[in-house]
């Protein structure tokens, strides 16, 4: 399955993401970063004597460039997978990882897997979606590059719940920069929405009204693996275009 989906498992890095970044800076950044930092320092001083707004903007832009370059070097993304309980999040994660998906139980905490795909290291977080657990979702927002919202397309009764939860998430400041991929899952089930499930789901979830995030909806089946990879590819392309583009 691993090969079918084109993903490779990797060992989860022991150091935390933040710890790695700190270590990277302390051990001495590459020359181009040091040079840029000097220019930035200069910019900051000049700022005191000249047009403060202009130079502080230069400083911010410069900092952004450095961060982008560091991210580029890491080629690492953090993807957060959320959705109502029973939507199929854990099944999707296991399918990506080439694991058996016949025995899945509800997630009471979270699962994390680090996979490699197209040269990117993907840290995928799958958090339990039961109502009592949703207040903990916020603990996972930090540094999210991509939000994967999983919908059970056969669960028509809870589509309104689903829409409300997603709308609330999109107002979260810490998710403001994240790209949104909606997986309309369980397309293999006869009762799932309609033959034009994707368009219907996007209407029901009011996706057209989202102006704050780049988004895309993909119909898929975690059991058969259908369309999982094309969804992830779109997500990676969008994130890469936003955060790995240098200069
Ligand atoms: N037919 C079908 N069943 C699916 C699909 N994806 C998941 N399921 C089933 O749906 C049930 C719930 O799947 P999970 O992956 O545990 O759902 P979850 O979103 O992780 O649920 P929580 O951990 O409670 O948030 C399981 O019985 C899966 O086998 C799918 O694409 N098709
Ligand atoms: Mg789960």
TrEMBL record:
GO molecular function: GTP binding; GTPase activity; metal ion binding
Location of the protein in the cell: Cytoplasm, Cytoskeleton, Microtubule organizing center, Centrosome
Name under which the protein is recorded: ADP-ribosylation factor-like protein 2
InterPro entries per record: Arl2, ARL2/3, P-loop_NTPase, Small_GTP-bd, Small_GTPase_ARF/SAR
Pfam families: Arf
CC terms in the record's Gene Ontology section: centrosome
Entry keyword set: GTP-binding, Lipoprotein, Magnesium, Metal-binding, Myristate, Nucleotide-binding
Family: Belongs to the small GTPase superfamily. Arf family.
Main localization, broad class: cytoplasm
Residues that coordinate or bind Mg(2+): 90, 107
UniProt: GTP binding residues: 83-90, 129, 185-188
Provenance organism: Danionella cerebrum
Transmembrane segments: none
């Amino acid at each position: 399955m691993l090969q079918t989906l084109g993903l490779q498992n990797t060992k989860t890095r022991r150091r935390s993401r933040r710890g790695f970044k700190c270590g990277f800076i302390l051990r001495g950044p590459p020359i181009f970063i040091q040079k840029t930092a000097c220019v930035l320092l200069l910019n900051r001083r000049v700022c005191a004597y000249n047009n403060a707004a202009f130079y502080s903007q230069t400083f911010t832009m410069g900092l952004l460039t450095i961060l982008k370059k560091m991210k580029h070097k890491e080629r690492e993304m953090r993807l957060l997978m959320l959705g109502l309980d029973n939507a199929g999040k854990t099944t999707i994660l296991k399918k990506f990882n080439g694991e058996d998906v016949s025995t899945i139980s509800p997630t009471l905490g979270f699962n994390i897997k680090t996979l490699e795909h197209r040269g990117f290291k993907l840290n995928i977080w799958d958090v339990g979606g039961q109502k009592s657990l949703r207040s903990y979702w916020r603990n996972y927002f930090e540094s999210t590059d991509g939000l994967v919202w999983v919908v059970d397309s056969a669960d028509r009764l809870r589509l309104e719940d689903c829409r409300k939860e997603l709308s609330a998430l999109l107002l979260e400041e810490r998710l403001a920069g994240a790209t949104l991929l909606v997986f309309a899952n369980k397309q293999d089930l006869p009762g799932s929405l309609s033959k034009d499930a994707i368009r219907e789901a996007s209407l029901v979830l009011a996706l057209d009204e989202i102006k704050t995030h780049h988004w895309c909806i993909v119909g898929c089946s975690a059991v058969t693996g259908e369309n999982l990879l094309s969804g992830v590819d779109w997500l990676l392309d969008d994130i890469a275009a936003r955060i790995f583009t240098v200069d």
